[in-house]
Amino acid sequence: MKKVEVVAAVLRNKEGKFLCVQRGPHKFDYIHEKFEFPGGKIEPHESQQEALHRELVEELNLIDFVILEKLITVVHQYPDFELTMHAFLCASDYPKFTLNEHINFFWLKGEELLQLDWAAADIPIVNHILNHESRN
To answer: 0.90 exceeded by the pTM?
Structure first.
């Protein structure tokens, strides 16, 4: 079974809302047009943080953000591959970006995240956010 290691940015803006992006059409129906946190594959020569910076530039032309902390690592078994995703909390006051690979986006408060149809591997990240916010 193919194994893929990726990073994801849980990008929070000044208002405390999180960036949620929607994938486009995909050959695998289980990720077709699902919502996710932006990010992507780690190249062999990259650290997780370097990959996150590169992916956010490629996917969103986003450069004005800071990585605050690693939140969670999720290992999820999809039917066709195993995904290991390292999610990082990132911040940007007024991020300007362009959707280069996604078809839609929303800025949502923590409690609003459950309104979206998430890719299965991103659901533990959503739950982590909700659990963390309920303790604060």
So the answer is: yes
User: CA neighbours within 13 Å on the CB side: how many for 101?
Assistant: 18
Length of the chain in residues, anyone?
136
How far, CA to CA in Å, does 131 sit from each of 71, 100, 101, 111, 134?
12, 31, 29, 10, 5
How far apart CA 123 and CA 17 sit, in angstroms, is: 17
Cα angle value 103/89/31 (rounded, 5°):
35
Query: In 10 A of CB 66, how many CB atoms?
Result: 9
- Note the pLDDT tens digit of each residue in 45-81: 999 999 999 999 999 999 999 999 999 999 999 998 9
> What does each C-alpha distance from 51 to 67, 96, 112, 135 come to in angstroms?
12, 20, 28, 30
Taking only the tens place, the pLDDT of each residue in 119-134 is: 999 999 999 999 987 6
